[in-house]
Amino acid sequence: MDIRLDAISHSYGDTEVLRDISLDIPAGRIVCLVGPSGCGKSTLLRLIGGLERADKGRVLQVGTPPADSLNPLTYVFQDFALLPWRTVHGNISLVLEDHGIRGKAADAIIGDVLARTKLTDFARALPRQLSGGMKQRVAIARALAVNPAVMLMDEPLSALDSQTRELLMDDLVALWMRQPFTSVYVTHNLAEAVRLGHKIVVLSRRPGQICEVVEIDKPLDQRGYADPELEQVQKHLWTLMRDEARAADAELLHV
Amino acid sequence: MSDTTTPETTHTAVEVRFRGGGFAPSARRGVGVAVFVLLILLVEWGTRAGWISALTLPKPSDVAATFVELWQSGLLFKHLIPSLSRLAVGTTLGASIGIGVGILIGLFSYVRAGLVPLVAALFPIPKIALLPLFVIWFGIDETSKYALIAFGTFTPTVVATYGAVDNVDRSLIRMGQSFGLSWLSIVRKIVLPGAMPGILSGLRISLAIAIILLVAAEMLGAEYGIGAYILEAGSLYDLERLFAGVLILSVLGVTLSMVIGLIEKRLLAWRG
Ligand SMILES: Nc1ncnc2c1ncn2[C@@H]1O[C@H](COP(=O)(O)OP(=O)(O)O)[C@@H](O)[C@H]1O
Ligand SMILES: [Mg+2]
Q: Where are the transmembrane segments (chain B) (predicted)?
């Protein structure tokens, strides 16, 4: 299933946040959205997942999601959004219960996603007992459990320290290599974007418009830490963003 | 600091003053009991030595004797059981309706707009003042007592509950919606557990109010009950029995507070 954004514009009251965004998100690819803070990345992601309605334009699903997908458009949030009163196992079973999946069937799915995210030993732990990186892996496991057609990730690694971020990027690459998933990945970190994105969409400052779309053909598993080819792309992205980011920063001060 | 030419030994070394710590109360077993024991011993000494007159306070040992007598004659349970059942019925009614209404106020804008001013108007009414009205409405027997206690526990429970619902982390609710959970699931599995800490601390206040109202209700047309017992003792200026009754109320309050503490420990274990 592909996602197509058709001329999306959105405002909150008098603040125009997004202007005329058209974009294709092809199945099996990771599309990264980068842009200065406040440019509407999170807003765009909420529009794509149907948590908010766009003022103008449409979000289209092209093709049908796989029949076994419980929740075709699934989020991974920056703040993890785990229920603190449920164990790791309970947090994942939460999203299965409403589909009538309980008991053995649920345990099989939960066991599988925990193994894929290397969390098998922590099924009975409470969120407060886990480190930030592990919490985000639980959130990723929860997203995988509903077999999403598209994963909508809003700065999933931004709350983590840089070492943990590197490790988790490797985990994401491994997950994708095992079974390619479709994802819209929002980040303000250009290193993350060039590491994980097949397609990188650069947004201008508010109102967010598409500045440029950069495609990277190099397969994900061949992109290493500090890869010169990627650094080149990253530099290019930074030149695109620098002035926007500076202007956006100055604007925020005047609000 | 950057002056490298001065040898370090010319400076006097002072240990950094500790200024952290505090603001983190932890369990101190036995201190509460010690305060009680100390106060009682003080009064016992005072009444025996005579610097507390018999009209001011009864001897604690006499109060204890009265209490034992009350126990042995079986009168204790004759008074305690009707009181406890009134308390149970009244608070169960008031608290459950209160939690229900509080959740509705927390979730629906129209219910909030309609009921919050009403609750604010009802909250400051001293419920004891309404007892005669309840007697007219519900009769002099048990129903009016249930109603008074229920009404008294209802308002603080409502306020605590909708405040707690307001404080539930919206990002968790957003998460539930994004996974397509039904409205009922979101309320049951995210809103309610998230509001539980606030609801339980509201319940603590409600229960204390319930005990106060219980006594008030029993002072009007009750043959048995702690309140009736205290009223009778008071009108005879029988200080020993009066204090025995007060003792029962205090123990009741401490017990209920401990029960809530246990419930909190079980339901809120996730907070660690
Ligand atoms: N619910 C909302 N109501 C009003 N303004 C909002 C809301 N959400 C976001 N905004 C505003 O929209 C702009 C874009 O926000 P957001 O999409 O969160 O940016 P980003 O994720 O790119 O940092 C910001 O200026 C923010 O203040
Ligand atoms: Mg954002």
A: 31-51, 87-111, 118-140, 146-165, 205-230, 242-263
